[in-house]
Amino acid sequence: MAVKTDSYLMSINGEWVGSELDTLDVVNPANDEVVGTVPHGGEKEAEQAVEAAYEAFQSWSNLTAHDRAGYLKKLNQLMLDNQEELAQLMTIEMGKPINESRGEVKYAASFIEWFAEEGKRVDGDVIPTHAAGKRLHVWKKPVGVVAAITPWNFPAAMLTRKMGPALASGCTIIMKPSSESPLTAVKLMELCEQAGFPKGVVNLLTGSSSKIAKVVMENSKVRKVTFTGSTEVGKTLIRQSADQVKKLSLELGGHAPLVVLDDADIDLAVKGTVASKFRNAGQTCICANRIYVQEGVYDEFVEKLTKAVKELKVGNGTDESVDIGPLINQDGLDKVKRHVDDASSKGATVMTGGEPITDNGGVFYQPTVVKDVNQSMIVMQEETFGPVTPVEKVSSDDEAVQMANDTPYGLAAYVFTENVSRGTQLIEKLDFGIVGWNDGGPSAAQVPFGGMKESGLGREGGHEGIEEFVESQYVSIGLH
Ligand code: NAP
């Protein structure tokens, strides 16, 4: 069944269904219009999805990796064929500029393509024996039913980064997208149906996160939960997973430092800062959240950055020429405002921006550069998730490292220097899972993505991404 109206449905065991509870409105943050409704699913639907996924696991896990890759390759192609529809949906449900949405669809499809092939390389092992009458093997088994809970800021890619390895390795999946941006997920589900996945292999729930999470955390048929979202919810899931020792992968919050040393190519550093910081209006887990610039190039960097940021165009993401869309909702806007106001009140200088934009409806904030910030300001301590670049002066490489690491987060960091020795030594001291060296956009399907410290557990993408969905089974064979 195709999604034809703005009333969208969930999919359980190959059937499109509503919910006994009400529906939830999905609101375009660019103009406050309701662009669709989704079912307000709860415990009953979650139980049904678990049963369906559990039943389907028996046959899906018995297919060969080559057969499963066939389904995934069809899905990859369907995503590319439907790139424009997916992108338009994404833009109206969460505000991302349309060109970025198109880019996200391609990026999202690349995970399906990558893992279709990686599924064929889930090798076991034969280990040299210590006793003549024994043979020692390691076999790999899919972990079982997987629940995937995802955030609103990358409505397609955060799902496919989990779907790809789960489905390729032989797991079945229950997807629960954010209530802020579930429509892209419904369209993806429709494409899964067109790709011919057997019923129950892929299921989609929308609605109450707490009720759905309660079921998936308490039902022992769900063996793995893979979550992307805030560190706060991630910690709740860790606690809830304890009773059943459920397998968890967590991609959580970030608070990325970006360091510019005095031998950096300043134009490149400004370009990298703008690319990293202002993508998705700064609502990206790996976006540069705090900038540390060495004193010799501080004034030049701030001046060039301010000039570049002044050129960014803000508006409704459906406008092809827009660089910065709205924030996701009023809470997001209030947080950004709180961070900038706090910095200003403690002596920082706003070089450009610094205010909400109220004249065209929606939830917009001006692209902002704040200089002369320090570590006492909230903007240097918490994830801002908005189009704000706070810049602090540092004197040495060691001071930059000390400040960069002075956070419970450890997802991404950026370093700009032309000196290989300095760059290498500095990066070796950084406690971050991802580092962009002279590169503001390090993400790709074939690399391991994930954080240290409170930014998460496990890695997605790359060779490592599929390991999260398989168990090693050691088999000792006695010969007689
Ligand atoms: P969030 O509030 O943690 O929500 C993420 C998902 O969890 C949503 O589907 C949400 O559903 C659900 N959820 C909320 N409360 C829950 C609970 N008690 N139990 C189970 N699920 C629950 O995060 P967000 O605001 O959507 O996303 C922004 C955060 O995600 C930022 O911190 C960002 O850094 C992080 N992020 C990290 C990565 C990464 O790869 N490390 C990537 C992207 C984003 P409802 O919407 O229905 O409540």
Automatic annotation (TrEMBL):
This is NAD-dependent succinate-semialdehyde dehydrogenase. GO terms for molecular function: succinate-semialdehyde dehydrogenase (NAD+) activity. Signal peptide: none annotated. It comes from Lentibacillus salicampi. Pfam families: Aldedh. Keywords: Oxidoreductase. Residues 16-475 form the Aldehyde dehydrogenase domain. Gene3D superfamilies: Aldehyde Dehydrogenase, Chain A, domain 1, Aldehyde Dehydrogenase, Chain A, domain 2. One of its GO terms (biological process) is gamma-aminobutyric acid catabolic process.
